[in-house]
Write a structure and sequence with these properties.
The strands form 4 sheets. A 4-stranded antiparallel beta sheet has the order 4-5-6-7, with no helix packed on it. Strands 8-9-10-11 form a 4-stranded antiparallel beta sheet, with no helix packed on it. The chain has one helix spanning 13-24, and strands at residues 34-39, 42-47, 56-58, 65-74, 81-87, 90-95, 104-106, 111-116, 124-129, 135-139, 148-149, 153-154, 166-168, 173-176, 184-186. The chain is mainly beta and 193 residues long. It has 3 domains: 6-58, no CATH class; 65-106, no CATH class; 111-189, no CATH class.
């Protein structure tokens, strides 16, 4: 993430205006002065002649940078090389020919739970990690199937509603995946599948 110049947020408006002009110049659309504006708890640069000029610029760097090119690894979509890149949500692997080829994959390992997806019936549920490090389970056919669970799925049929999967509710019990069902099985009584 880019560092923000602290002189931009000075309480002295003359120093503030001079620092903004030195760092960013005048508005590229209308030539007016730029000013720090606030919306939704974030700061951005905006033209002082708003609403006549709608120029705005983010103060944070959201650019995607290439960390390392993986020379001997071809892209599965276009056969050019892949690279490790850094974006706003962390590291990922992408094609070097990025806007032409939009191949992306995560660096984090996704493990297959070998449990069939109950929504699309074609995919398997994968264990994934979100950007905060919390585990979740989603269908491997995403984005065509958007089935997601927060608890670990188990290939076990619910005794009440006959749902094909249950979740690990506790160390000793499995609970039905459907919120309207109250089906529970003790771990010792789990039928073998």
């Amino acid at each position: 993430m880019a560092k923000i110049d602290s002189s931009l947020f000075s309480s002295d408006s003359k120093i503030n205006a001079d620092a903004i002009f030195e760092a960013y110049g005048d508005c590229p659309d209308c030539g007016g002065k730029l000013k720090i504006r606030y919306a939704n708890k974030s700061a951005f640069l905006g033209c002082i002649s708003y609403p006549n000029c709608h120029y705005k610029k983010s103060l944070t760097d959201t650019a995607i940078t290439t960390v390392k090119v993986m020379v001997d690894t071809p892209c599965p979509q276009c056969d050019k090389t892949l690279a490790i890149k850094k974006g706003r949500y962390g590291l990922f692997i992408g094609c070097v020919d990025f806007p032409s080829c939009e191949f992306l994959t995560s660096i984090k390992q996704q493990t297959d739970t070998h449990v069939n997806c109950p929504q699309c019936h074609t995919g398997h549920l994968l264990e994934k990690t979100n950007k905060f490090g919390k585990k979740f389970y989603s269908c491997d056919t995403y984005p065509s199937c958007k089935f997601v669970l927060n608890d670990k799925p188990v290939a076990c049929t619910c005794p009440d509603c006959h749902s094909p999967i249950m979740i690990e509710y506790s160390v000793t019990q499995f609970s039905c995946v459907k919120p309207t069902c109250n089906g529970v099985i003790n771990r010792e009584n789990k039928p073998s599948s």
